[in-house]
Specification:
Shape: globular
Radius of gyration: 18 Å
Number of strands: 14
Number of domains: 2
Number of helices: 8
Strand order of the largest sheet: 2-1-3-6-7
CATH topology of the largest domain: Rossmann fold
Order of helices and strands: EHEHEEEHEHEHEEEEHEHHEE
Length: 226
Amino acid sequence: MRTTLIVEDDKDLAELTAIHLQMAGYQTEVAHTLAKARECLDQKEYDLVLLDEMLPDGLGSQLCQTIRDQHTCPIIFMSCNDDSDTIITALRSGGDDYMVKPLNYEVLLARADAVIRRSAAQRPHGAGHLRHFRHFAIDETRRQLVREGTAVELSSIEYALLQYMIQHPNTLLLYHDLYQNVWSSDSLGDVRTVMVHISNLRKKLDPDRIGIISTVRNAGYIFSDL
């Protein structure tokens, strides 16, 4: 059974979220503060963390960075804030996805299932197998990026984005199509999640900005193995 930690200070919302997850077959635990969440994370591993950004004792993005240093579980932010700065901070701290309250629970469950499957698929198994491109290689077993002989860790989302782009070279990949195919869900018109994760991937894949991933303004991206 999949285990989920819900970090949410609104007790009614936390309980409602837990009920929806339990009905879908999840085992849930709830923490109303960062301190309690850290205590829970010190005691066990979770398949998913649902994380509010604004908590009584700090920001969820601060906890997210701590989780990323110690755990590989996917993290979905849940927040009333829909401003770009908050979303960018949350995703760059290590979040896999970001949902704005009030939550659509059908969408939440779809995204939860998708990020858990992706995270499980990324876990390393055995010796690596390299797939070579002109400026980089991919270790398809360990699901790592290799640049100039050095392994670069990718999040499950970054790896999935790169794989999708590799499968569609020299093609305009629209924001909404990327979200639908990589996150396995509808973007609901908000493409900022895609943009932040592409930015993070580009920094790892193409730090010299030679054009491996090109931006088509207000449309999407083009991957070219130059």
